[in-house]
Design goal:
By secondary structure, the chain is of the alpha/beta class. It contains twelve helices and 13 strands. The strands form three sheets. Strands 5-4-3-6-7-9-8-10 form an eight-stranded mixed beta sheet, with helices on both faces. It has a three-stranded antiparallel beta sheet with strand order 11-13-12. This is Three-Cys-motif partner protein TcmP.
């Protein structure tokens, strides 16, 4: 494999990267058909696409994204919709490798579907985003529903303000790499403050001074998350933590959307990757036979809801929204694993339930005082 100095053009696929791809492809499997029902054009943007392949011939995110669509069980139903894949890689050697990988993939999948457009470019993510924005301004048009996968090395070239401008349209979503290891190391060093200010869209990261351990991690994590909400205007932001082989947090993946259905789908995928908590993957446990509980432990959720809704009469739809937005649990954990045992224990009752233990749409639930 080619090298530039000591930097590899193609490198080994790490377990946490495979988990990241699992999150990405799991989400796209649902996102493509959902969005194509209502939109004539769908865009997938991979802003830091890499070489497209790893040592051992494992495909990278660009080909995995294409694979999801071309092998989708509902592909025929989406044949009249246009799918645009934009792959960008700034490093010249990796871009050249990516071109070869994409070209070979297209050749292997002939006849290539006419509704699937693929573009491979080599520029900075900032220039690519500015180019898209300039084109939209000239056309006086809005960006088609776009899933932006932004997965850089480090903290350079990812200004919060650029994300705001590029993803300001309602149907645009973000899946972004947040290099916690670098941010944590340099938040108070003073030598890359300009980069970190661009990354966060504020210099409030400096308030991490004096914080240590879990408190410092939570502060930096929550600051970036709040900026995605307040600056970029995402209604819902959910993160997933990646722990390296030394047991330390390497980075977080942040998902941003304005659609609660998107949040529901992403949380389902996160719980598939992490059946224990839906929030974390560790390289330490990769490849090991980890024994998870047969069913998710929803006792913390039961206690939380019993306290939060104490004495109230609420709909099951209200509870579903609460679980999705305000807890780490997924919607699939609500009825059978949470409400059913709560009713059995007398914590909740229902004035309009037709059958005990079932909670169809419109069910009202009364929480004990």
């Amino acid at each position: 494999m080619a090298r530039t100095g000591e930097r590899e053009t193609v490198w080994e696929l790490k377990p946490h990267t495979a988990a990241k791809h699992q999150l990405l492809t799991g989400y796209l499997k649902a996102w493509f058909p959902i969005l194509s029902r209502w939109n004539a054009r769908i865009v997938f943007l991979d802003g830091f696409a890499g070489p497209g392949i790893y040592k051992g011939e494992e495909y990278g995110s660009p080909i995995k994204a294409l694979d999801v669509l071309l092998k989708h069980t509902h592909r025929d139903a989406m044949a009249n919709k246009e799918f645009v894949f934009l792959f960008n890689e700034a490093e010249q050697d990796r871009y050249e490798q990516l071109e070869i990988v994409v070209r070979d993939y297209v050749a292997k999948n002939q006849p290539w579907p006419s509704n699937v457009k693929v573009s491979v470019g080599s520029d900075s993510f900032e220039n690519v985003a500015e180019g898209i924005l300039g084109f939209l301004e000239q056309q006086k048009s809005n960006l088609a529903p776009t899933f932006a996968f932004v997965d850089p090395f480090g903290v350079k070239g990812l200004p919060m303000d650029l994300l705001r401008r590029l993803l300001s349209f309602d149907r645009c979503e973000l899946f972004v790499y947040f290099d916690f290891n670098t941010v944590n190391r340099f938040a108070n060093a003073g030598n890359i403050d300009d980069r970190l200010t661009e990354l966060f869209g504020t210099d409030l990261f400096k308030q991490a001074r004096g914080l240590t351990g879990a408190e410092r991690k939570a502060f930096l994590h929550d600051l970036y998350q709040s900026q995605l909400v307040e600056v970029c205007g995402f209604s819902y932001v959910k993160s997933f933590e990646m722990v390296n082989s030394s047991g330390h947090t390497g980075y977080f993946l942040f998902y941003g959307t304005r659609n609660i259905k998107g949040l529901e789908v992403m949380k389902d995928v996160m719980w598939t990757v992490d059946p224990g908590s839906g929030e974390k993957f560790s390289d330490i446990l990769a490849g090991q036979d980890v024994l998870f509980q047969a069913e998710v432990d929803t006792r913390p959720l039961q206690q939380d809801m019993a306290q939060h809704f104490r004495g109230q009469l609420v709909s099951v739809e209200t509870l579903a929204h609460y679980v999705l937005v305000d807890t780490p649990y997924a919607l699939k954990h609500l009825k059978k694993l949470t409400l059913k045992p709560m009713q059995k224990e007398g914590v909740i009752t229902s004035p309009n339930q037709k059958r005990t233990g079932t909670f169809p749409e419109g069910t009202l639930i009364k929480f004990a005082d």
